[in-house]
Amino acid sequence: MDKFPRTIVGGVSLSRMIIGTNWFLGWSHTTRAKDDFIKENISERRKIADIIEVYLRAGVDTIMGMIAYPPLADAIEEAQDRTGIKVIVVSTPAFPVSPETPAKGFDLDAVQKILDKEVKLGATFCMPHQQTTDAMVDRCTHSLRKMDQLCQAIRARGMIPGLSTHMPESIIYADETNLDVETYISMYNSMGFLMQVEVDWIHKVILEARKPVMTIKPMAAGQLRPFQGLTFVWNTIRPQDMVTVGTMTTKEAAEVIEMSMSILDQRQAGVTLQETRSKASLKHAVAG
After folding, report:
1. Rounded to whole angstroms, how far apart are CA atoms 111 and 154?
2. Helix or strand or coil: residue 244?
3. Most CB within 10 Å of its CB: which of 32, 45, 200, 229?
4. How is the chain split into domains, by residue range?
5. In a 10 Å sphere around its CB, with 0-12 CB exposed, 13-18 middle and 19+ buried, how is residue 98 labelled?
6. CATH number 3.20.20.100 is the correct assignment for the domain at 6-287
């Protein structure tokens, strides 16, 4: 395949690989030192635009994250200008939640200000972040309290609503209550990293979801090597589902794109393996 495969979500064509942004912004899920390294060496407009450009030229034109977080919005704009390719933005803003929110609902003035900014930044999808979504999950009533208010407000501003969650119940309850969302963001990796129940349970939730699922953390924030992480996820999700992959360099972006395409094509990846001295005899035997 020449360009990355696509799927349809809420009537919009998206690349099945989504550009992750944690590695751009300094959220390593590893150590404070790693976060600082990212912020000091990666988190600038030009470097981020360089990486996004690699994705765009391979047909990966969808990006996910806190788009309002500088310098991401500027980097997206620069990558678009370089390539002439429009980026499809899946934004995950947080909305204020208080002890009164489950009963009285969201502060709609605050919601409006946040959503107006999302529209200005060009978001196509608006998916309330996990810290909002999961705070509203009610296991007693099998519902997501007051989330319909956010969905209505998102629709009213011309964006497509979805939910970002770490709780599998969010997906199940949204489906059961016919909440007006078109897609879900869910943790999914073979290690079970940041997942609240076993991997096979999350797999079942994804397979039975009524809407396409955008999976995140396929490599467990760097704890799984790309070959293991990507092979597992691409082979256990549905054709309509997506995988979000973040990288810190242009070469890493090219590698995960080629590796993913080879997995989907069921062929050997055209990726040069890393080498160490301990592999010298192995390399000689394979070459021979």
Report:
1. 9
2. strand
3. 229
4. 6-287
5. exposed
6. yes
